[in-house]
Write a structure and sequence with these properties.
Rossmann fold, 25% strand, alpha/beta, 249 residues
Length: 249
């Protein structure tokens, strides 16, 4: 069996407490692909396809390997119950997952243990954790939930090794996302009510500017789009959601 474990620390707060509480309430159902977090299970393979491409581009010498992250460390910020941590572990990384909700990391650790995966999980804000730096930092669907995006990106960047790779995703702030991600998706139960607050979404240009202020440059960027017959997929269409990779400038 694996040695997944959880620890909690006091820390600076950038995630709004009500946001952490909201997702903590979903912890027990996080791994149910037909439960309230079903949308995450559908989008996760799309995210992981981008992440794998970004890994291969950043470390081309290991691109042909089944475990291209062997010998490397990875941090997933806002890890929820571990949907990104577990595949990163299977790619060979020594993975740490951090989430503001202790209930989420407890669920994550229990699932990883059941899968025989050794993942370190920690509850708290990344700024308050003495965990060093990582070769790969991922942070998907988190920045739209933070109160101070500039401060949060500063904390994220502080965890990135000098030659490291950062991957982040977030909804775009468009008329389309307001109608579909906030209105229709919550109305039909595709995502739990209260998941999204449209005014907190950021556009790709805004995100790139924030990353530049943090000393990072974007290396790749794709939309995560949906269409009948194809479902969720990587696309040049960023109207709903997008994912990007970045490294130190």
């Amino acid at each position: 069996m694996g040695n997944a474990n959880v620890s909690a620390r006091n820390s600076n707060v950038t995630i709004r407490p009500e946001e952490a509480d909201f997702f903590a309430g979903l912890a027990r159902d996080w791994w149910n692909p037909k439960g309230p977090m079903a949308s995450l299970h559908q989008v996760n393979p799309v995210r992981m396809a981008f992440i794998r491409d970004a890994i291969d581009a950043h470390w081309p010498d290991t691109a042909a390997q089944a475990k291209p992250l062997a010998g490397k460390s990875a941090l997933d910020i806002g890890c929820g119950a571990g949907l990104v941590c577990e595949p990163l572990t299977r790619l060979g990384a020594n993975v740490t997952g951090v989430d503001a909700a202790a209930e989420n990391v407890s669920a994550a650790a229990a699932h990883a243990e059941a899968m025989g995966l050794g993942i370190r999980y920690m509850a708290g804000e990344v700024a308050g954790l003495d965990i060093g730096t990582f070769d790969l930092v991922t942070c998907v669907e988190v920045i739209e939930h933070v109160a101070d995006k500039t401060a949060f990106l500063r904390d994220v960047t502080a965890r990135l090794a000098p030659d490291g790779l950062l991957v982040m995703s977030t909804p775009n702030r468009t008329a389309t996302s307001r109608v579909l991600l906030v209105g229709a998706a919550e109305a039909v139960g595709y995502v739990p009510k209260g998941t999204h607050h449209w005014e907190d979404f950021i556009t790709p240009d805004e995100f790139e500017a924030l990353l530049a202020d943090a000393g990072l440059t974007v290396t790749a960027k794709r939309g995560i789009a949906w269409r009948p017959g194809k479902g969720l997929h990587l696309s040049d269409d960023m109207a709903l959601n997008y994912i990007l990779s970045a490294q130190r400038a």
